[in-house]
Amino acid sequence: MTRQRLSREQSREQTRERLLEAAHAVFMQKGYALASVEDISTAAGYSRGAFYSNFDDKTQLFFELLRREGESIDREFERILGGPVTDAIGLQEALAGQYSRLYQDDKCSLLWMEARIVALRDEKFREQLNGFLEERYAQITHFVEAYCHLTGTPPGAPPREIAIGLMALCEGVSFSYRCVPHIVDGKTAESVLAWFMKASIAMPAPAAAPATHKPATSRKKTD
């Protein structure tokens, strides 16, 4: 049986995918700072020329990995929020369940940890990461607003603040799960994430404080 020959576009896509897979492994083994284009190209089985035919530099490749991980996560939340809502509690549980399992993904969690460490030391990288984070916050904000619209639940805080909190908490729990698993084991990680997710998206907005009126004082009549 003869193997079907790949088209030029298919071959380029295959090269790109192999470079991305190899880069992730190299970044996790050496760290972003020590990883070189040569390391990534060799691990993928290609030349430096093949690398530069697909990516400008290792930074562009790194953010492509982050973008793909984000899109993979988004697809699951879009699926949960995409149908008609017949059970608001069920929707909340489904969202919390999905969110509470995000810490398990080593590929995504370790990549984000590396990004944060690099950003502390590299100002140019930090600027790019900040721009990418704004995109992530906007997407999570959209999910929070979609949930509130579908269920008629007013957000307990500005949706963007909820989005920032949910992302920061997930990163922190993921880090703790990997660094101090005797304290934050899998069960604890899921419980913490699920509880905070449900609390943040279902918490009623604080009621406005009642207006206070100073008692009227009578002015003494003077002769």
Could you explain the architecture of this structure?
This protein has 223 residues and is an all-alpha fold. Helix content is 70%, strand content 0%. It is built from nine helices and no strands. Helix 1 crosses helix 2 (37-44) and helix 4 (58-81) packs across helix 6 (106-121). The longest helix is centred in the middle third of the chain and has 29 residues, at 123-151. Mean pLDDT is 89; it is low at 215-223.
Structural features:
223 residues, mainly alpha, 70% helix, globular
Summarize the structure.
Helices cover 70% and strands 0% of the residues. By secondary structure, the protein is mainly alpha-helical.
What about the largest sheet? none
Please indicate the percent range of residues in DSSP E strands (runs of 2 or more): under 5%
Task: Tell me the number of strands.
Answer: 0
- Cα radius of gyration in angstroms: 24 Å
The shape is: globular
Helix/strand/pairing category: mainly alpha
* Low-pLDDT ranges: 215-223
Mean pLDDT: 89
Number of helical regions: 9
Q: Termini distance?
A: 118 Å
Summarize the helix and strand pattern as letters. HHHHHHHHH
Helix content: 55-70%
Could you give the topology of this structure?
Blueprint: H1 8-30, H2 37-44, H3 48-52, H4 58-81, H5 88-100, H6 106-121, H7 123-151, H8 159-179, H9 186-202
Helix pairs in contact: 1-2, 4-5, 4-6, 4-7, 5-9, 6-7, 7-8, 8-9
